[in-house]
Amino acid sequence: MEQDKKSNTWEKVKKSLLKAQTTTAIPLQEEKKKILKLRAERLAQESQGSDKEVCIEVVRFTLSGEQYAIESKYIREVFPLRELTPLPCTPDFVLGVVNVRGQIHSIVDLKKLFNLPQGGENKLPKVILLHSPDMEFGMLVDEITGSGPLPIAAIGPPLNTLTGLQLAYQRGVTVERLIVLAGEKILSDKRIIVDEEVI
Amino acid sequence: MKWLNNFKIGTKLLAVFTFVTFFTAILGYIAVYNLNQIKQRDFELYQVNTQPLSEICVAAISFQRIRVCLRDIVNTHDAKYRDAIYELDGKINDELAKLEKTMDAKEVSQKLTEVRANIEKFNVIRDQIIDHALNKKDAEAMESIYHGDGYRLAQNIDADLQKIMDIKVTQAKEKSEANILNANTAERNMILTILLGLGVSLGLGIMITKNIQKPLKQVVEVAERISNRDITVDVSMEDRRDELGHLLRTINQMSTNLREEIGKVATGVEVLVVSAGEISASTSQFVTGAHETASAVSETTTTMEEVKQTAQLSNEKAQYVSQIAQKAVHVSQNGQRSVDETVQGMNRIKEKMELIAEGIIRLSEQSQAIGEIISTVDDLAEQSNLLAVNASIEAAKAGDQGIGFVVVAQEIKSMAEQSKQATSQVRSILNEIQKATSSAVMATEQGYKVVEDGVKQSAEAGESIKIMTKTISEAAQSVVQIAASVQQQFVGMDQVALAMESIQQASGQNADGARQLELTAQSLAEMGRELRQLVQSYKL
Lengths: 199, 540
Known about the structure:
The complex is a heterodimer of chains A (199) and B (540). Chain A is an alpha+beta fold and 199 residues long. Chain A has helices at residues 2-24, 29-52, 110-113, 164-169, 183-188; strands at residues 55-63, 66-71, 75-80, 85-86, 94-100, 103-109, 126-132, 135-141, 143-151, 170-173, 179-181. Chain A has 5 helices and 11 strands. In chain A, a hairpin with a 2-residue loop joins strand 7 and strand 8 (135-141). The longest helix of chain A has 24 residues, at 29-52. The N and C termini of chain A lie far apart (85 Å). The longest helix of chain B has 156 residues, at 243-398.
């Protein structure tokens, strides 16, 4: 009996291993084609939908678990935060500077600005590099969740409950509780320009 | 007569008998002497007087026959008569020679000489007559015979022979008379001697008898009194040194001793009576004890029988145990082999476990590597995502011309997301794998330890089983010895049972004997009482 049981368990183990192999294995050519076809169809539908309404192109991201979005035209690029060099004698929302292909950009911590709780995501934070003709800096976010068009009609008025910079930088909130930031306001805000001298 | 008392009875009797014998010898001698004399004379009477008479007669007859023969010759002229005459001649000569030997008297021998001379003369004449007769001169012969010298000579010879016969008869008569005289003398002497001997013997006999009888009577009286259980006797006795004196003294001593001893016997009899009583009581107890012993022995015999049966059972059990011990030895040897194999198996398991541990460690390392690879892939997906975002941003900047690029960017983004999902799935699977691996590592470690322990324990078990095998072998040997012992015990039990039977018989006999002893003790007590009565009946 004991041996039967053991052999049964071994049989189970072997079966599950086989199953795992099949699941983790690279899908067959036909399946790949199937998936690609489905995806193409979906994308085609979305593009059809976006034609009907006026959309803005946004990049979505998260901050302390909340969904944010910002218009793509204010973004130069996104990249993961690596080799941050802290800067002395700066306000606490300025984390430091990074070197992106030979250019030095300062990094601002939005959580500090928005008085959001620190921590949350453990993963490597991402940087959204905002730019305007006279301003360019990196904005630290938890996660880039994606980019895509967002109908302007979907953007509702800002939440009245928000105060301070959050309210100042806000463009509106969608029904999916996506807070759409106003890039031009952030870029043009003088409060984040640091001009201090240290004797 | 006092001196006589000092001689022993034997001496006295010997003296009397010696005396009597002496007298008898004297008497005998006288008798024998006289008888011898008489016998001598009688012999002489016959030899000298009676025998010659017959010889004389024979000679006379022969002579007469010669004369007859002469006449016959004359008458017949036959020569055969001459031979007869010569024969008769010889006979006469023989008889005369015999006669001559017994001659004792001078007169007789003189006559005999005359006779011989006459016979010589006659013979001459006779021969002439024979010649005449043979020559047929009958007349001359007859003349010579009836007349003449021949006739004369014949007459003389006859007369002489008669004379001799007379002399002999006379002599015989004389001798006979002398014999009678002699016998008479002897008779007288013997009577005298006998009378004398009788008198002396009688006197001596009476004297000695009296001497013996008187004290003997005393002794008899004393003995009678003693026989009547009166031992108060004290014999007043004379001073005697013979056997009777000794006897009297001895009897005196005996009565004294008897008094003392009967006194002691009386005491002893008292003791005997008491002791016999005690013995009787003890014997009764002994009888009871013997009965108890007999019953106890009987019980013991029964018990012995049971013990014997038990011993038999033990014997069988011991045999059985011996067989089992043999089996146990086999089993333990098998067990030892099995344990050896187990030790080898455990060692193999250990090796396998080491292999498994190595494999699992490699697996965990590789899963670690996979984790790193996944991180890398994750990172790549992230970067792809960002790249897609950047691409879409760039596409948006490009305006309408960038729309297709937007699609590509979307596609890239979705791929990045998918790969991210896949990696997250892989990661979760890997997490599971890592958990499983770490638990497998731990399990392997524990298993390795367990296997090591198992190796150690199986080695110990092997040692234990080896010791156990040895012990069981020893136990088996012991059991065999036990079986042998039990066998001997069983045999011993048999012997004991036999002995117990003998004891039972003996105890039965003992009980019988005790009963007899009891009876004997009672009779002893009875006898003691009788003895006491007997002793009391003595006058002391």
